[in-house]
Amino acid sequence: MRITIVAGARPNFIKIAPIIKAIEKKQNEGAGISYRLVHTGQHYDKNLSDTFFEELNIPHPNANLEVKSGSQSVQTAAIMIAFEQELLQNPCELVLVVGDVNSTMACAIVAKKLNIKVTHVEAGIRSGDMTMPEEINRIVTDSITDYYFTTSTWAGQNLLKYGAEPSTIHFVGNVMIDTLHQNLDRISAPVFWKEFGLENGNYIILTLHRPANVDEEKSLINLLEGIDSMVGNKKIIFPIHPRTKAILGETNLQLKNILFVEPQGYLNFMYLIKNSFAVITDSGGISEETTVLGIPCFTMRNNTERPETQTIGTNTLVGTSIENLEKFFSAFLQNGPRKAGIPELWDGKASERIIDILLSKK
Description:
By secondary structure, this protein is an alpha/beta fold. The protein is built from 15 helices and 13 strands. It has two domains: 2-173 and 346-360, Rossmann fold; 203-335, Rossmann fold (3-Layer(aba) Sandwich), CATH 3.40.50.2000. Helices cover 43% and strands 15% of the residues. Strand 11, helix 12 (284-293) and strand 12 form a beta-alpha-beta unit.
């Protein structure tokens, strides 16, 4: 079985790393399976892509399509044009896509039009918010997928509602958690750890990148000032996304607690998460990692495609207003973290299950 694995953006790299390890393990056992790794170039900043390949021991991609940035349509079209040529020159039996970025949808469409089977890892998750490009990517990808691999039974139920055949849906667990398990003994403090006087539990991690939170400069500044003033004497480490940094521009912010740092590599960032007091974010993936690490997480969104991080894990959905965040954070300070657990099959073995199932389909 020849598999083409697609990665395009930072979350993809974290998800493909354990899948590649699982394939290589099967190869060493004599299984008839091979892979070709294609990096679309959707994320091309070294801190957002190359660093992850190095840290997670992902092999150098067999091809880099180098599509870079553009509008949603321009980027999607560029990926499709380049990926079609890639598949024509390097045929395979299966294209494996992960997550919900533009590369996921674009490469799935190209594969199906070439009559190549598609497998979607992290299939079936839904936010219900059609203003999110990721939601459209999920729906389109899942509508043409042959083999679905899900992180929860809830995701499988979503797929059934959309008409997927039950025999094609496989609840395997969470590959992002595979990567976490495989690297917990390798995580390390960032260079600024001592400089900022960071210690276990004396700081908060902040990440913001979604348009609802960062696209308008004035509201972004109000949000940052509100967060800065509500945390008491806790430091706030804010690895600022290049897009968010550009929106702030040369604004002279008067913040006493927020410390701006560059985007972090995986090993440094997981160290920061694991040792933090709490996390404030608008990322979906981070709420999965905080759940497994037992760190309280406050997600600044009106919806989530990962409800298990709320019902079982440590995540609290707080909306996009600073007033809501202050209310929930204040309750947390007063009452302490709520009781939480780890979702079923988030045990670090999802990738092995995926490859075992794919080999059974030969």
